[in-house]
UniProtKB/TrEMBL annotation:
It comes from Trema orientale. One of its GO terms (cellular component) is mitochondrial inner membrane. The active site is at D189 (charge relay system), H290 (charge relay system), S402 (charge relay system), S402 (schiff-base intermediate with substrate). Residues 1-64 are mitochondrial matrix. Heterodimer of a large membrane-associated beta subunit and a small pyruvoyl-containing alpha subunit. The keyword Lipid metabolism applies. This is Phosphatidylserine decarboxylase proenzyme 1, mitochondrial. GO terms for biological process: phosphatidylethanolamine biosynthetic process; protein autoprocessing. Residues 84-453 are mitochondrial intermembrane.
């Protein structure tokens, strides 16, 4: 029904005796309009759930303008992301390496309240979704970000919210762990960005070609990195590889826990056999972090930093990206020495969960305007035992995707009896999954004089 209103509406003053009459007429007219609109909404809902059957004239679903704008924006951002990733892949196939080129977007991001935006996103992803809509939403997400829904441990209807779907566990056996005891496996599903051995003063990790950051800035000034002074590089040759061989003596971990040292990156350099590996998780990847080896986690540090994005474009434009962002660092010893895993937060991924510390929370509102560079620290066991984990055990989880940086000691060739040497079994750009080998080493004894003859 269409109502036509004349251009000229006569002005009149109602008779006081007829006020109640006009009031009742307005109430009747308003209730009639509300019932009409409710009937149309019910008809639209039935048509949508019946595959869109029904009259399309007069019953079209009215989407608010803000929702349409949001959907269009998300679509444009997704198309731009896919375009950028395709260009990067084409360049990498041609052997062209991306270089650091700061732009105005990086400056603009510093002005945005990314932490508050990420908390709002976290709230939205925690909202319960109607059961009937869950499979459609999750399948749409999987198509957009190339997720494998066949690996999900539960039916899609049982994931109440997007957050539960993001951090979903997998079916048993989907991620077999390499059983080789002389093998270090990947803690996450992702793409290998950087790896190598630390050499030279400062122990620098290359973010992209043309810019690097120090590992001490990433892990914290009080980290237990096995560093030595410039003039004592020969002393580390005789350092025992297995720090838990003699339990009667205090390990260097216990000494460091008692009086941690602050390393000067200019006047110190890493010991031989200290490696790193940077793995990027896309939004569609499996988001849980597993233990790469059998190790004991002694310390957890939480740096409440920014929440810049960590995609390919961000790494090329934002200086000190992984050092600037909020992150959680886990440190402890394993059979070959030092091990640390840094879980880097990002925009909309400010929430990092620790299965070994369920009460731990990240991306909390700051009490001060400027965040402190001093991390919030927890020592799990000052006696040197800590949290014992087996290779493949679940450690933490991201909401959506982000980046993991591993720093670890591994065997290298020395002048002594051992001829073992750790070698990476991956290359930059490789896709890797939890449990697959990052690198291996082999123990071999040198031939004696009788065998040589």
């Amino acid at each position: 029904m269409k109502f036509r209103v004349p251009n000229r509406v006569p002005v009149f003053f109602p008779n006081p005796t007829n006020v109640s009459y006009h009031h009742n007429q307005r109430r009747y007219f308003t209730s009639f309009i509300i019932k009409k609109l409710q009937g149309q909404a019910a008809t639209q809902a039935r048509a949508s759930f019946n595959g869109g059957s029904g009259s399309s004239q007069g019953d079209s679903f009215l989407v608010p303008g803000a929702t349409v704008a949001t959907l269009l924006m998300l679509g444009v951002l997704h198309a731009r992301r896919m375009y950028d990733e395709k260009k990067v892949e084409e360049a990498q196939e041609k052997g062209i390496e991306c270089e650091f080129q700061p732009d105005l977007k990086a400056t603009f991001l510093r002005l945005l309240p990314l932490r508050s935006i990420s908390r709002c996103w976290g709230y939205l992803t925690s909202v319960e979704i109607p059961v009937r809509l869950r499979p459609h939403i999750y399948r749409a997400w999987a198509r957009a970000f190339h997720s494998n829904l066949e690996e999900a441990a539960l039916p899609l209807e049982e994931y109440a919210s997007l957050r539960e779907f993001f951090v979903r566990s997998l079916k048993e056996g989907c991620r077999p762990v390499d059983p080789d005891p002389q093998c270090l496996v990947s803690p996450v599903d992702g793409t290998i960005l950087r790896f190598g051995e630390f050499k030279g003063p400062g122990a620098m990790i290359e973010q992209v070609k043309g810019f690097s950051y120090s590992v001490s800035s990433l892990l914290g000034a009080s980290s237990f990195l096995p560093m030595v002074a410039e003039g004592h590089m020969e002393e580390d040759v005789d350092e025992p590889e297995n720090i838990s061989t003699n339990k009667s003596k205090k390990s260097w971990w216990r000494i460091s826990m008692a009086s941690p040292k602050v390393w000067d990156p200019v006047s110190s350099r890493p010991m031989r056999g200290l490696f790193y590996c940077v793995i990027y998780l896309k939004p569609g990847d499996y988001h849980r972090i597993h233990s790469p080896v059998d190790w004991n986690i002694l310390v957890r540090r939480h740096f409440s930093g920014n929440l810049f994005p960590v995609n390919e474009r961000a790494t090329r434009t934002i200086r000190n990206l992984y050092v600037e962002n909020e992150r959680v660092v886990l440190e402890g010893p394993w059979r070959e020495g030092f091990m640390a895993i840094a879980a880097i937060g990002a925009t909309n991924i400010g929430s990092i969960e620790l299965f070994i510390e369920p009460e731990f929370r990240t991306n909390q509102p700051r009490k001060r305007l400027l965040h402190s560079k001093t991390p919030e620290k927890r020592v799990y066991d000052p006696e040197g035992v800590g949290m014992k984990l087996k290779k493949g055990d679940e450690v933490a989880a991201f909401n959506m995707g982000s980046t993991v940086v591993m720093v670890f000691q591994a065997p290298v060739k020395k002048n002594g009896d051992s001829l073992s040497e750790f070698k990476f079994s991956v290359k930059c750009g490789d896709r890797i999954r939890v449990g697959e080998a990052l690198g291996r080493w082999r123990e071999q004894q040198p031939l004696n004089t009788s065998q040589k003859s």
